[in-house]
Amino acid sequence: MFERFPFGRCFCLFCIWLVLSPCEARAQTKEYQVKAAFLLNFAQFVEWPHAAFSGRDVPLCIGVLGDDPFGPALEQILNGESIGNHKLTIRRAKRIEELTSCQIVFVCSSEHNRIQEILAKLDFHPVVTVSEVADFAKQGGTINFYREQNKVRFEISTASALKSGVKISSQLLRLGKIVEPSPNHK
Amino acid sequence: MTLPVFWRQFLVWWQQAACIGLVMVELPELNAQQTNAPGSAPARDDGAAAYKKLSLEDLMNLDVTSVAKTPQPYDRAPAAIQVITGEDIERSGASSIPEALRLADNLEVAQVNAHDWAISARGFNANLGNKLLVLMDGRTVYTPLYGGVEWNVQDYLLEDIDRIEVISGPGGTLWGANAVNGVINITTKSAADTQGLYMEAGGGSELQDFTGVRYGGTLASNVYFRVYAKYFDRNSEIFADGNTASDSWGMGQGGFRVDSEASPQNHLTLQGDFYSQGEDDGSTGHEKTSGGNVLGRWSHTFSGDSDMSLQLYYDRTYLSVPFAASPAAPPYYTGFPAAPLVDELDTYDLNFQHHFQLGERNNVVWGLGYRFTHEVDEDLSVVRFSPPVLDQNLYSGFVQDEIKLHEKLFLTLGAKLEHNDFTGFELEPSARLQLNVTDKQMFWAAASRAVRTPSRYDEDLEVVTGLVNPPHPYQFPTAFLEGSPNFVSETVIAYELGYRAQLGAKASASISTFYNDYHDLRSVSATPTNATYTFPYPDIFQNNLEGDTYGFEASANYQILDGWRLHGGYDLLKEDIHVKPGSVDVDGALNETADPQQQFSLRSSVDLLRNVELDTMFRWVDKLTMDSSPTGGPIAGTVPSYCEMDARLGWRVNKHLELSLVGQNLLHSHHVEYGFPNSSKEAIERSVYGKISYHW
Question: Is the predicted pLDDT of residue B69 greater than 70, yes or no?
């Protein structure tokens, strides 16, 4: 067809050149900024038992386990924010043991082979676990992100929340997709 | 990092507005970069912090891969834009795209008969209106035959329409020729958003029966598809004398769409539709239209402030309009057989756009386009096009820069240069200024030039007389009406001024005013007669009209209660189109403007119960003056003003099943909306239909 439209061929070549020319790839930035904002909202819409905090004014800790995909987004979104008396802090670690005192733990995709192991270490801890690993909530986690039509959505497991003793607000339950742990993953 | 105060407040307001259910949408990919609402995008590094002010609902509605990297509510765009959402369409009970367009206050929408519609913005809703550009998913749907839109074949499964954006005023700088008085941009949902099974069916008095089905699934991880099909039959309207207008019709359409989000940087879309339609055309016969299209688009994001898209489509339409036989009257009249005018059109269109940030202050978008059309018109009857086969090339390029002059002040400069085969190069520049007075109030002003390039109708038309063998010394004209190879583009220079405001938490209002200065509008000149050439034919199209129009479009939303929303709209349009000094127009400058001077609409949306919705829509349309025909001389008829009401009651039985009952044009048994008033003018009848829809 392009023999018929020499203009079109030049056009195509030009576009290919344009795409191949070196460019800073920051396409994922926005996705993680949005996800970081979700984490902030999760912190607001979850009620932890008093025992989850060692004191009235101790920080609310958001842990990041594994290879952090957020870049600077977490700090940009969470720094300076507080939930009630609890200032938000971010803690990054490679081992789950370092994060058991956190209130929210984000399990990075790098850990996808160790989900059961990680969740077992958090059993009966008042910790909300969040991940992007597919079916994380079905595997026993609390919340997992997924994408639908380029939009960030989340699945939430009330059973996991019950198990960790946290109370999740109805607003969060209304907006998320409720899933139950699947026996296959046990 | 400190955010500009206005932006911070704006976000808070936006969040509140979303919470109370005001219609707020993100601009779609294409328009986000085109209309480029300035002031809504925080500086790049501030972007992250902006998100934390958004509610969960807002966050869930953000397109994380689109070019609009930060939330951009449409009403920050410096233009007279109105957005009809999929939900608006559903709640209105509209059963077709033209019916849905009644929801836009800034349009004139008039139903001509059972299958034809006259739709325009800011006047010029003439016979074969030609000053509106209409796109479906980036595909231009006006016909180069006469520059207008065959509304009866612009259809889709309404359930899968994401939104319709209606911009009144010129859009030539971005969209090119024909966007003289407005642009309508219809966007369907991504296949990712239409997963699962959907079925609808129903019927009633005018919309006799209809059925639609869609199924969406995944082809691979992050590759989504849907296929759909629909069919309907519509009943005839009636003439003023109560006889049937014999204009019943039916149409079937099917199609698919595949969206691949294989990586966050790349979005690929492949879609196609085909349709076939048949309608009774009074006593003349049966009109047939069919067609199809296939479109591919690749959107690539380089970074947070740089992206491009490349789109290629092919579109084919086939139109067959019947003409009745005309018996011969020897020796002077050959007569004509009953024969259809057949128009076959193939369009190939390639479009590229690139958007990037240049320095701190410049937001640049530019693009190139090429369109090739191959059109075949064959006719043995009176209406002919010469040459019968025409290939046309359209080249275009545009660049637009949005310059941040100040935290609150943005200047957008742009121009499009097009080359078409009829008139050569055309330039369509524009300048827009936007002032965000506060986070809740915005003024905008614009000056633009747009053109309506000639169509085949203007250049190639030939309505032949069939007159032969003139007795000596007389001469007969060969044609009654002819296009002119000297026809030039019609131009407008438009000046606009607009204001939009959020008034407290529950109300919003907007007003757009305009003054349009038109030149070289289409006129009709007679051929001089003399002692041996006694018929004043052919009439020939010329560019002898000019004039101006002015007016305003106002609309307001008010949330009375949590579940009760009111919307009102009012348009005023004054037109002064006249013949250039020293020229003539056979139609006395009447043929271009068949427009109501005023329009008023009021809509109420009530959630009666948690799962029962009641929507009522009232409209009043001023009288309009119609010329009898393009060649009949200035014989004006008046279509009286009318008021009408539509209503819809919807009941969501459970999460799968929904029942609704819709009444259209409820106030009168029938009324005329458009057309020269005589005994063969169709009147639009009251219509009631029921619908069952099922999601799985």
Answer: no
How would residue B12 be classed by pLDDT, with cut points 50, 70 and 90?
Answer: very low
Interface with B, mutate which of A4, A9, A15 (most B CBs under 10 A): A15
pLDDT at B523: 92
Give the closest of B52, B70, B193 to A149, CB-based: B193
Q: What is the mean pLDDT of residues B541-564?
A: 93
- Tens of pLDDT, residue by residue over B339-384, are 888 999 999 999 999 989 898 899 899 999 999 999 999 877 888 9
Domain B5-695 CATH (choose: 1.20.1440.20, 3.40.50.2000, 3.40.1190.20, 2.40.170.20)? 2.40.170.20
Give the closest residue to B80 by CA, choosing from B184, B179, B168, B180: B168
CATH of domain A27-185: 3.40.50
Identify how many contiguous H helices and E strands chain A contains and give both numbers.
Answer: 6, 10
Q: Which of A26, A31, A62, A145 to mutate to test the interface with B (most CBs of B within 10 A)?
A: A26
A15-19, B216-220, B683-687: lowest mean pLDDT where?
A15-19
> Are residues A30 and B302 in contact, defined by beta-carbon separation less than 8 angstroms?
no
* Cβ–Cβ gap B192/A150 under 8 Å: yes
pTM score of the predicted model? 0.75
Q: How far apart are CA A57 and CA A84, in angstroms?
A: 9
Confidence bin at B68 (pLDDT 50/70/90): very low
| Cα gap B112→B132, rounded to integer Å | 17
Separation of alpha carbons B696 and B692, rounded Å: 13
A39 CA: distance to closest CA in chain B (Å): 10
Question: Residue B514 CA to chain centroid, in angstroms?
Answer: 19
Q: Which residues of B touch A2 (CB under 8 A)?
A: none
Q: Are B133 and B450 in contact (CB under 8 A)?
A: no
> Mean pLDDT score of chain B, rounded to an integer?
86
Residue B549: predicted pLDDT: 97
Q: With an 8 Å Cβ cutoff, is A5 touching chain B?
A: yes
> For residue B76, what is the DSSP state?
G
> Among A4-8, A58-62, B457-461, which is the least confidently predicted range?
A4-8
Assess contact for B78 and B410: CB atoms under 8 A: yes
Residue ranges of the domains in chain B? 5-695
Most B-contacting residue of A1, A30, A32, A70 (CB-CB within 10 A), to test interface:
A30
Cβ of residue B357 closer than 8 Å to a chain A Cβ? no
Residues B46, B86: contact at Cβ < 8 Å? no
Cα–Cα dist B601/B649, whole Å: 19
